[in-house]
Each structure stands twice: as structure tokens, then as C-alpha cells.
Amino acid sequence: MAGTCAFSEIIEGDVYKYYSEGEWKVSSSGKTVSIVNPTTRKTQFKVQACNQEEVNKIVESAKAAQKSWAKTPLWKRAELLHKAAAVLKEHKKPIAECLVKEIAKPAKDAVTEVVRSGDLVSYFAEEGVRILGEGKFLVSDSFPGNERTKYCLTSKIPLGVVLAIPPFNYPVNLAVSKIAPALIAGNSLVLKPPTQGAVAALHMVHCFHLAGFPKGLISCVTGKGSEIGDFLTMHPGVNYTGVAISKKAGMIPLQMELGGKDACIILEDADLDLAASNIVKGGFSYSGQRCTAVKVVLVMESVADELVKKVNETLAKLTVGPPEDDCDITPVVTESSANFIEGLVMDAKQKGAKFCQEYKRQGNLVWPLLLDNVRPDMRIAWEEPFGPVLPVIRINSVEEGIRHCNASNFGLQGCVFTRDINKAILISDAMETGTVQINSAPARGPDHFPFQGLKDSGIGSQGVSNSINMMTKIKTTVINLPSPSYTMG
């Protein structure tokens, strides 16, 4: 895999290197971080445990490289991004193999993530040329009390050094969703990948290296969060970040997509076959380890029995096993994650929830489970399991469902199933979430759609145009004229 061909230089012995100043390096710390395979629960990979001195050097080189990159023509930035996208898709197989071994992502889904990421990089390149290639021209006499004595020119300029810290569940896609807008906007980029997913991210970064980006413009630093995590987020050389510690990050722009407790509201007139298939797809794909997964079903009592029956029938068709076999349900990422899920399940059992399937677990592998008759006093009604367990709460009115949704600390996405578009719009407007899907499960994509959360689910909005705009700031030049000037038609 990585030890041969295009990726041979990113590994030494059995330890992967980190990327700095256009080179693959071994940390002076002499320490490594182990990455455990969720399926075998044995060490699969090792990466460098970088230290704070190396982080300082990376940030300094990023600052220097950014100055030159900002002067690079926009068309040239786009050209390099298109090249990186092609290289990324060319090497989709070895990167996907890392995703299978690091985060137990089903093989077919792993390949899809890499290809999708390449397409996203290209989309950023194209849209970036359009967004950044235009400025604004304002005249002063549009505001009361002013003559036309001032011409105002505005343009978008880069922020400087961007820090990206993606989560484990999409370590390639959610990394490039920061890398590509940062680079097209003229910024440099420092990537701190998650431990589970770090090797896939290192492979992805090497694709940008092979595309020929300038030295120091892109860096990838691996290591323990306790050693370099907070140090990075509070680093004075960082101008933009997307991590969940706004107080520590200080007065720099933030873009954060955090957790969710995405509610699915089912009305009496819903297409229950459509709803059931979307509940299973939305709640159990990638074993429920998605921020936009359906996390709670709020169904009207009159159709609850029929809906639960249909969901159970669809659940029974899911395959359970290792990601190499393309099973629908694969091991969750860590043993601690499995333990947390089990804690929620046992709490629900103690308080009287109805188990539609037998609870079954082997190591990190948790079998899919639907919990019916869940009540608000159960932890599973509010906490995010990030696993293949889904609670069903029966409601007697739409207002009850909306109240439960809005009482959550999270507000990422939600969905409503009904044949009445007027009801759907009214419910959507009432739900305190960043996005509401009508007659479909929550989802982040397509990747160019706006993606944002309310409350504890995040700050800022992703999506191609939104991300590019968030990674720039406005620069204004005002031309003052000696006397009013009017162009005559």
C-alpha cells in the first residue's frame, strides 16, 4: 500500500512521517502515536508524535509561504487544485484502504469518500475563480447627504494561515473541505488530522504534494492532542481555525461543525415506506457515526406501529461484519465509543424502553438496534450515541415533536415526512436547526449546499461559496475625487 510506488516516501520503517516545508520528516521527539484498527482492536499504523517546536517551525513556514502564494495568479491556484483533485482520484484505492483499516469504513463507502473529495476540490477551484475574480464598485451618492465624490472598490483577500482539524468519520472529505477553499483564497494551510484517520489524511496530503504546490504552503502535523492540540489552536501565527474551542482560539475567525441530535418527525399522512427506508439509511449508514445521522424518530402515535414494523423489516436486511466485506454495519471507531453506546442502551433498558432487536455486541461491533417507546427521561432521547442505535419517541401532536426537537442543545439538521407541503414548511420554519430536509434523511451533501448548525452544533456555514467567503476578508480602497463626478448617458 503506502510502502510502495507513489507513497513510498511518506513512511519510514513502520512509522508514517509528518509533512513540513514540502518534505516528509521524522519527529525529533522520537515518539510515535499508535492507531488501533477498530475491527481487530490491534495497532494497525503508527504516526509521528510531533512536538511544539516542530509546530512552531510549521507555522512560521506557513506564514512565509502564504505571502508568495497570495501573489500567485488566481487561475494558477485553480490549475494546481484541479491537478491535486486528479491525483487524489487516481490514488483512491490506497487511500480507501487506509479508511477501511483506521475507521472501519465499508470499502465501497471509503472509495466514494475519496472520489467525492476529489470532485469537491475541483468544484472549489472553479467556484473560487468566479467568487474571488469579482469585486464591488460603490459610489457615495447612493447614501443620503452625499455627492458623488467617492468611488469605493472592494475585493476579497486571504486571512493568512488556516488551521484545519477534521473529525475521524470523514478524515479525507472534511479535510479537503477546508484545504481547498483555504488554498484557492490565497491562504496557507496547517492540517492536524484526527488520530483515527491520520494515515488516510497523510496519503491525501501527499496527493497535493505530487500536484506541485509550493513548499511550506501545506503542512500536516500528527501527534497527541495534549501535546500539540491546544498549542495549535492558541498559536499566535494562526489566522483562522475550525475547532471546538472558541475561547482558546481567541479573536480569530472560526468555522465549526460539531455534533447533532437530528430529529425525524413523521406525520400521519407520511409515505411510511419512504420514511422507513430513509430512517434506516439516515440512522444506520456508517454505523450511525455521522453528525447528520437520524438520532431520534418522533412519530405520531396513530402511525407509529406501522412505521416501527417497516423500519424493523428494513433493519433485518442489513449486513453486520468487517468493513473489508462491505458490510452495512461495521465496528465503531473505538472501544470507548462502544462502551458509551452500551451505557445509553442499558439506561434505556432500565427505564423501560422496548427493544425491537436483541442487544448484541462483540468488541467494537454493535449490532443495529431500534428502541421503541423511548421517553424523555432516558439518556438516549437527548444524547448523541454516534452508533447504530436509534430511539423512537411516540408523539400526539406536531407541536410535541417540535418542542422535543427544539429542547435539544443541538441544532444541526432535522427532517419531516409529510405529503402536505404547507405543513412541511411550517414545521421547517419552527425547527431550530441549521437545515431541515423534507421527505429525506439529513445529509451534508451535495457538498456545495450550505451546511451549518445552530446552538451547540456549530459556528459558521460550510458549502463551497460559504467556505471561500469565510476564508477571506474584505479589503476596501476609496478614491476621493476633488469634485462630484457624474457619468452622462
TrEMBL record:
Q: Which domain of life is it from?
A: Eukaryota
InterPro entries (alphabetical): Ald_DH/histidinol_DH, Ald_DH_C, Ald_DH_CS_CYS, Ald_DH_CS_GLU, Ald_DH_N, Aldehyde_DH_dom, ALDH-related_metabolic_enz
Q: Which CDD domains match?
A: ALDH_F11_NP-GAPDH (cd07082)
Q: Which PROSITE patterns match?
A: ALDEHYDE_DEHYDR_CYS, ALDEHYDE_DEHYDR_GLU
Q: Which residues form the Aldehyde dehydrogenase domain?
A: 26-476
- An example of a Pfam family matching this protein is Aldedh
Enumerate the subcellular locations listed in this protein's record, separating them with semicolons. Cytoplasm
Recorded GO cellular component terms are: cytoplasm
Keyword set for this entry?
Answer: Cytoplasm, NADP, Oxidoreductase
In terms of Gene3D superfamilies, this protein maps to: Aldehyde Dehydrogenase, Chain A, domain 1, Aldehyde Dehydrogenase, Chain A, domain 2
Gene Ontology MF: a single term: lactaldehyde dehydrogenase (NAD+) activity
Give the positions the UniProt entry annotates as the active site.
Answer: E257
Q: What EC number(s) does its UniProt record assign?
A: 1.2.1.9
PANTHER family the record matches: ALDEHYDE DEHYDROGENASE, NADP-DEPENDENT GLYCERALDEHYDE-3-PHOSPHATE DEHYDROGENASE
Family note: Belongs to the aldehyde dehydrogenase family.
Q: What is this protein called?
A: NADP-dependent glyceraldehyde-3-phosphate dehydrogenase
Originating species:
Rhododendron griersonianum
